[in-house]
Design brief:
498 residues, alpha+beta, Pdz3 Domain, 3 domains, 7-stranded antiparallel β-sheet, 6-stranded antiparallel beta barrel, 12 helices
Length: 498
């Protein structure tokens, strides 16, 4: 009995010791686990405030400022008159979508973004957002809507300027895009997929990108003479269809560029977006507002970027610069003494490392501007003062009354030669010197060289008279161009509604 009692006491004591040990160990484990409620900060990006203190990077103030100055644009094209016309969009491979026959008599619509650049209602956007539009509607961030006037367009940079009748608007100021650095934080603001006031963040991935997307018609018809300017800022901030014409800004809200294209196998964002730098945008905007057309200086050279392969092919002793392979007929550079085989390494105080850099720099100049071009010629550097000319060889600025046709019509006009008029037994007329990819080319069968004698039965004796007549026309007016061809002298009439 005593032995049983001793065993019982031993068992009870063992149980008690086991429970004590378990509770002690369990309490120890609880104390070793830290279930803190603070948010991890290891991956937060930091910046310095005005006191030099590290604080989390914050985009909220910039986003609030910028979204007020970015607008939504809806463009309505006129009814199409060709039943089986194939619509080929040069931006299709960047934004996706198949080539398709356009439906007859159905007005097409497109949407995009724009940036207000001053209090007076001027807005910059992409040319492809408003190209051939009969009606352009602008919606502000506060949902007010206005009909916009197209002040001017420039296919060579894919830029356009609009104006609405409203004052005291919020706007963005241009900043120097040359000073922007790769790796710098930027915000892209626009209206992708009709999602208004969308803000995305990223960095500048590269500068001076040439992706061969702007003014493909000019490239195809005359590579030496085309004036397309591509020197894009590349960013990984998300850009999608609808962002076209929107703002790329720095963290102070300064306008660094106009978002223009994406490189994507699907038509949607995949990491590569491209914006026209603000230094180019500013020059184009000023020209369009002041003159209605871009005043573009021209060196008149065919160039290629120098790299290791080019250096070997042409036996060059440098690996950077723009190699001159040919000259245009009216070349400012050739007249100044430059030669084929020269490598442009500097213009004024700006180093030229690629052909893109040269095109961008000259693209900011006007006819009559003077630049100092430094070339490497067989290992020796030479400096040539060059006075830039327009493509026609003149140095004078084109005046508003001398503009040759309206951008949406896509025609360049010139006064008809007296001998030609006499040959065709005409008293007056003007000639279509160049027929671009505009509405007349797409919606009628008109050909280059057509001699316009009348507009709506009104005789036309000069380009100036033609422009004066067109200025009086309003959206929706029917325009009938009457005239003939030198090689087929019978009367033709081409009708188009503005």
């Amino acid at each position: 009995m005593k032995q049983f009692g001793a065993l019982t006491m031993a068992a009870m004591l063992g149980s008690i010791l086991t429970l004590v040990a378990y509770n002690w160990l369990n309490d120890g484990n609880k104390k070793s686990i830290n279930l803190g409620t603070q948010t991890p900060v290891a991956n937060v990006a930091y910046t310095l405030n005005e006191k030099g203190e590290a604080i989390p990077l914050d985009f909220t103030g910039t986003a609030e400022k910028v979204t007020k100055a970015v607008v939504h644009i809806r463009s309505t094209q006129k009814e199409n008159q060709r039943n089986e016309q194939l619509f080929i969009d040069p931006f299709r491979e960047f934004f996706g979508g198949p080539q398709r026959p356009m439906q007859p008599m159905q007005p097409a619509q497109s949407t995009g973004s724009g940036v207000i650049i001053n209090q007076e209602g001027y807005i910059v956007t992409n040319n492809h957002v408003v190209n051939d539009a009969a009606i352009v509607e602008v919606t502000l961030s506060d949902n007010r809507s206005f009909k916009a006037e197209v002040i001017g367009t420039d296919p060579d940079t894919d830029l356009a300027v609009l104006k609405i009748k409203e004052k005291n608007l919020p706007f963005l100021s241009f900043v120097d895009s040359d000073k922007a650095k790769v790796g710098e934080w930027v915000l892209a603001v626009g209206n992708p997929f009709n999602l208004n006031s969308t803000v995305t963040a990223g960095i500048i991935s590269a500068k001076g990108r040439n992706i061969g997307i702007v003014n493909r018609e000019g490239r195809a018809t005359n590579e030496l003479g085309n004036t397309a300017i591509e020197s894009f800022i590349q960013t990984d901030a998300a850009i999608n269809p609808g962002n076209s014409g929107g703002a790329l800004v720095d963290l102070n809200g300064g306008l660094l560029g106009i978002n223009t294209a994406i490189a994507s196998p699907t038509g949607a964002y995949s990491g590569y977006g491209f914006a026209v730098p603000s230094d180019i945008v500013k020059k184009i905007v000023e020209d369009l507002i002041e003159f209605g057309v871009v005043q573009r200086g021209w060196l008149g050279v065919s160039i290629v970027s120098v790299n290791n392969d080019v250096a070997k092919e042409y036996d060059l002793n440098i690996l950077e610069g723009a190699y001159i392979s040919a000259f245009a007929e009216k070349s400012s550079a050739k007249d100044a003494g430059l030669k084929e085989g020269d490598v442009v390494v500097k213009i004024d105080d700006t180093a030229i490392k690629t052909s893109t850099a040269l095109i961008e720099y000259i693209g900011r100049k006007r006819p009559g501007d003077k630049v100092n071009v430094t070339v490497n010629r067989q290992g020796k550097e030479l400096i040539f003062p060059v006075t830039l000319k327009a493509r026609d060889g003149k140095t004078s600025v084109v005046k508003p009354e001398e503009r040759t046709g309206f951008a949406s019509l896509g025609i360049e006009l010139e006064d008809a030669d007296a001998k030609l008029l006499k040959k065709l037994e005409l008293q007056h007329g003007i000639k279509i010197k160049n027929l671009a990819n505009g509405r007349l080319a797409r919606e009628t069968d008109i050909r280059e060289g057509f001699i316009i004698t009348h507009v709506n039965d009104t005789p036309v004796k000069s380009v100036k008279e033609f422009n004066e007549l067109m200025k009086k026309k309003k959206t929706g007016d029917l325009i009938i161009l009457s005239g003939t061809y030198e090689d087929f002298p019978k009367e033709f009439n081409y009708a188009i509604r503005l």
